[in-house]
Write a structure and sequence with these properties.
It is a single chain. By secondary structure, the protein is α+β, with helices and mostly antiparallel strands. The protein is 39% helix and 32% strand. The chain is built from 2 helices and 7 strands, in the order βββββααββ. The relative contact order is 0.14.
Length: 122
């Protein structure tokens, strides 16, 4: 996928190798910030931001997936249906919390002195 930088119009490829991750603190809260950076002007593009709740929800999602795998081949269709419902609910919960985080952190992320900084929206 080719991305065009909003700031300098430089085009660059979105590759897994270009995805970066950094632990940041905003208003005393810790986040894991996953982003791309324009190789020309260093503009930062947020891919995903997660907090402890997202990490917990993702762990719970993984546990449900493990239960689904263990149930596979048992012909326990009722359990399979219940687990599928739990999986969908957990995905929706992660998405809803992610949207709340994005709403709360609407400002701009910049690279300053080799570190990601958050500038609150005015």
């Amino acid at each position: 996928m080719i991305i065009e930088c909003d700031k300098c119009q430089h085009q660059f490829a979105m590759k897994v190798d270009n995805i970066k991750q950094e632990k940041i603190i905003i208003k005393g809260l810790k986040y894991n910030f996953i982003y791309l950076q324009c190789p020309n002007c260093n503009a930062v593009y947020k891919i995903f931001i997660e907090d402890k709740k997202i990490e917990l929800l993702q762990k719970e999602l993984e546990d449900i997936r493990e239960q689904i795998n263990k149930n596979h081949g048992t012909f326990n269709f009722l359990r399979a249906e219940i687990l599928a419902g739990k999986l969908n609910n957990k995905k929706a919960e992660i998405e809803a919390h992610s949207l709340k985080l994005n709403e709360r952190l609407k400002g701009e992320f910049i690279l300053k002195n080799g570190k990601i900084e958050y500038i609150e929206e005015k």
